[in-house]
Design brief:
Elements (H helix, E strand, L loop, with lengths): L6 E7 L3 E10 L2 E11 L5 E2 L2 E2 L2 H19 L5 E6 L5 E10 L8 H23 L5 E13 L2 E3 L9 E12 H13 L3 E7 H9 L9 E6 L4 E7 L2 E8 L3 H12 L3 H10 L5 E5 L5 E5 H27 L5 E5 L8 H9 L6 E3 L2 H4 L15 H12 L4 E7 L2 E7 L5 H7 L5 H5 L6 E5 L2 E5 L8 E4 L2 E2 L11 E5 L11 H4 L4 E7 L2 E11 L2 E3 L10 E7 L2 H7 L11 E3 L2 E2 L11 E4 L17 E6 L2 E6 L18 H4 L8 E3 L2 E2 L11 E4 L1
Parallel strand pairs: 1-6, 6-11, 12-17, 17-18, 19-25, 21-29, 26-32, 33-37
Antiparallel strand pairs: 1-2, 2-3, 4-5, 7-10, 8-9, 8-10, 12-13, 13-14, 15-16, 19-20, 21-22, 23-24, 23-25, 26-27, 27-28, 27-29, 30-31, 30-32, 33-34, 35-36, 35-37
Helix pairs in contact: 1-3, 2-11, 4-10, 5-6, 5-7, 7-8
Length: 663
């Protein structure tokens, strides 16, 4: 009969052995139903990676068949773990600006996690030179801040800037695909996959202990996998390609035995003072355990040195305590050697075993050896965090195998695929435009985003739709809303600037705008933070005050289009205004010179100009003789002239009281 729904079949496919166990969740603990351990008939695994698929499959089938007979059930689904051989880790930070009043929902945080994983994977693939050459096999958020304040739980908070630091662990495709090929050959559907040190940690260092700075080393036959916890989370994963096999090979060399004999000798060192064996010449031998250990000491010291250095590297210092698990952890003297290497008290280095299993395993299981920690962790992880797996799906016609979760959403899939970013899923509103108009803050909202279009297996779907293995997703990214834009004319609807002629000199009248204190053209775009002010000179009186006509602005001193003009009269484009002031006579017409001095302001300083000998009026170009040297040096680059606040040509005639700016 089929295994019950709350039953898990876990396999630890190691370099030396395959351990299988079946467990069932009962009252928040796992009840162990059966265990089977079988050694490979030959070296079919190298450093924890499948080398000979057929040989490994044969061993897995023997374990599976033995458990099926023992428990009278059919096992069709399996939970497995990958060793840390060729493990690559990446730490990435992701910063997100939040909209006004936006809440950090669990969905948003989940999507950001997925995006951070994709970012880490993209960097790794770029470094390796192959796209999607690695699979993510585990990750954890090591730090979260909101507006600069660190949070342990960010969901539900509101702010303006969120930052996440995430560590992700990756394995090459060949490692993961090799495991899947074995399971396929055995007719087993992979229910979940995790990383071996993660599985071991979930048993030995559960979440409630991860506030402490603890390290765990899973010493197998081919690799030593490392995980480190601190501040409530797992902050580092790594591995060393030195483990129990190096000690076994040292015994082979010194005692002249084959690998299998050396392995048995190694396992008996802690149990016997003298070890008997048959060497490769067929001669019976006996050697003190101390002599064998002395011969293997360089290999053991090399293992401790490499693993200890890696722990110090990834943790930045010695941890508070160290746990050793895996079959290789039982080699005599390792706890003392690790304590010495890390500068810890020996009581702070422990071998994981029965004491730690009690946290997750119901009584009566009958196993307590550290070699069972990893398979127990695989089963416990599958039961408590059901559904982590790799599955084949199609995105826009491209098949990908993606690490997933039970209830994987379209949004997760798209981000983890590495093809899309979070913004392309939801889009965002265009940036607002903020500026001041006559001192008042004005805000123009950006346009709304066009939502993404999604279909799942040909039917309309959403980002929250669940995805299963074999599904096909078609996705058209969202289009971000356009940023807000405004021209000067749009911000000042009454903009209507025109020219009038005053004593043969052009001036602006009507309504126009200054942008940051300078005259602005109507088509000019307003930038964020600009200061816009409106200038208005619609009546002759306003115009006279604007260009400093002073008393001459009275009706008796000026004519408009040949007729007397009043202060309240509205000006029109093309108006011609002439002075009738008797003090202004032109010598070209034979009039006498007035002898007056022209006083005006040039770039903020007062200038007094004596009347020209020929009686000609002064024009803007004449003032170049009075400019400072640094301004004249910029003449080739083009200078701008403003007369009484308005742009003016160099031929514009000057009058008493004029204010001129040339820059």
């Amino acid at each position: 009969m089929e295994a019950a729904e709350n039953t898990v079949f876990a396999l630890d496919v190691g370099t030396r052995t395959v351990v299988g166990l079946v467990g069932r969740l009962a009252e928040e603990k796992m009840r162990l139903l059966g265990v089977e351990i079988i050694e490979h008939s030959q070296r079919a695994m190298i450093d924890g990676q499948v080398d000979d698929i057929a040989q490994v499959s044969a061993c897995v089938n023997r374990v599976k068949a033995a458990l099926e007979r023992k428990l009278n059930i059919k096992l069709s689904a399996v939970s497995i773990a990958a060793a840390g051989r060729a493990l690559r880790t990446r730490t990435v930070s992701l910063r997100r600006l939040l909209g006004a009043g936006e809440t950090l929902t669990p969905e948003l945080l989940r999507n950001l996690e997925m995006e951070a994983i994709a970012l880490a994977q993209a960097g790794l693939n770029k470094e390796s030179g192959e796209r999607a050459a690695f699979y993510c096999v585990g990750h954890s958020v090591s730090r979260q801040t909101l507006d600069g304040y660190e949070l342990s739980a960010a969901a539900g908070h509101k702010g303006t800037e969120y930052e996440m630091t995430l560590i992700a662990a990756f394995l090459p495709k060949i490692v993961v695909e090799g495991l899947y090929a074995v399971m396929d050959a055995c007719g087993l559907e992979v229910r979940s996959l995790t990383l071996e040190p993660i599985a071991a940690m979930n048993v030995v260092i559960p979440p409630e202990l991860r506030m402490l700075n603890l390290a765990l080393v899973d010493i197998g036959a081919g690799t030593s996998d490392i995980a480190v916890s601190r501040a409530g989370t797992v902050v580092a994963y790594d591995m060393v390609t030195l483990a129990g096999d190096e000690i076994t090979e040292a015994i082979m060399q010194s005692m002249l035995v084959d690998f299998a004999t050396a392995e048995k000798m190694k396992q008996s060192l802690s149990k016997n003072e003298e070890v008997t064996f048959v060497d490769i010449l067929g001669l019976p031998q006996a050697a003190p355990a101390a002599e064998i250990m002395a011969a293997a000491r360089p290999a053991a010291e090399q293992l401790v040195e490499a693993v200890g250095e890696k722990i110090l590297e990834v943790n930045g210092a010695a941890p508070t305590a160290l746990f050793l698990v895996g079959g290789g952890s039982q080699y005599p003297g390792l706890t003392t050697a690790f304590a010495r290497k890390l500068g810890l008290e020996e009581r702070r280095v422990a071998i994981g075993g029965a004491t730690h299993i009690q946290r997750v395993l119901a009584e009566g299981a009958g196993i307590g050896s550290p070699e069972y920690i990893t398979p127990l962790g695989i089963a416990w992880t599958a039961l408590r965090e059901a559904g982590r797996n790799f599955g084949l799906v199609t995105v826009n016609g491209k098949k990908i195998r993606q690490y997933s979760y039970e209830g994987l959403k379209v949004s997760d899939l798209l981000i983890l695929s590495g093809f899309y970013k979070y913004e392309q899923l939801a889009g965002h509103m265009g940036r607002p435009l903020r500026f001041r108009l006559d001192g008042r803050l004005t805000t123009i909202s950006g346009e709304l985003a066009q939502p993404a279009r999604i279909s799942l297996n040909g039917a309309e779907a959403s980002l929250d739709s669940s995805v299963r293995e074999g599904d096909a997703v078609e996705f058209t990214p969202a289009v971000n809303g356009a940023d807000a834009r405004r021209s000067v004319a749009e911000a000042v609807p009454a903009y209507n600037r025109f020219l009038v002629l005053v004593d043969e000199r052009e001036y602006y009248a009507g309504v126009w705008a200054l942008k940051n204190g300078r005259p602005a053209r109507p088509e000019e775009e307003i930038a964020d933070g600009d200061e816009i002010s409106v200038a208005s000179a619609l009546t002759f009186g306003d115009f006279a005050r604007l260009i400093h006509l002073g008393p001459a602005g009275e009706e008796s001193t000026y004519l408009r289009n040949g007729l007397p003009v009043a202060a309240a009269d509205l000006l029109q484009p093309g108006d011609i205004i002439r002075s009738v002031d008797p003090a202004r006579r032109e010598t070209r017409n034979g009039a006498t010179r007035s002898g007056a001095t022209l006083r005006l302001e040039l770039n903020g300083r007062t200038l007094a100009l004596e009347e020209k000998a020929d009686g000609d009026p002064y024009i803007l170009l004449d003032l170049f003789n009075y400019l400072e040297k640094d301004i004249l040096e910029r003449r080739a680059l083009g200078l701008s002239c403003r007369l009484n606040g308005a742009e003016a040509p160099f031929t514009a005639e000057l009058r008493p009281g004029d204010a001129v700016v040339i820059e």
